[in-house]
Specification:
Blueprint lengths: L3 H30 L7 H8 L3 H4 L6 H25 L6 H14 L1 H12 L5 H24 L6 H19 L7 H23 L4
Length: about 210
Amino acid sequence: MPTDATTLASLKKEERKARQHIIISAAERAYGKKPFETVSMRDIAKEAGMAVSSIYRYFPDQQTLFVEAFVSGTQEIIARMNERIERGEITDLVDFGLLFIDFLIENDHYFRMMTHFMLDGSLNEKPLEKLNLAARSVLDQFERVFGQCGTKQTPRFLSHAYFAALNGILISFRNYPGRSTSEVRHHMEELAKTVALSLECYARQTP
């Protein structure tokens, strides 16, 4: 039977999680308002409605908070992937690729965080480990869809290829000059379809 002490400890733990969630949500909003690289702890504190010193009670440094915000994004896209796969709405690489592209178009701050971490090799050991776990969780979903396609090739290798191709499309064309937002989105979706169909053909070939 729980004692007063254990109940109080549980409440404090839940309160801490709630505060961390508030700060992470504030960080995501701040990333959505200005270039990711220019966001400071002061910006996040202002968005969260608290002092900068209060944030450091829950996150030891800005790098750790950045990683937590990114992990939050990966959990959101994985949940969306799982839901649509289980409902039978994703049955091939085309559907899956369009979901991935559309999610990152609609949540550009997650994409900017992802590319920042891909290019920045200066993460500390613990945040880097957490980031790698989050990335592997996303790649697991890619591999899951390749498995549904009846691949005869190595699913993990193909997952890496598809993940890299989709990110390459986003990097190359998300700011396509002279095109409207809808035209850019359509162009990227058509490229994603082309890559998906090519990989599906390759996946079914005997090694």
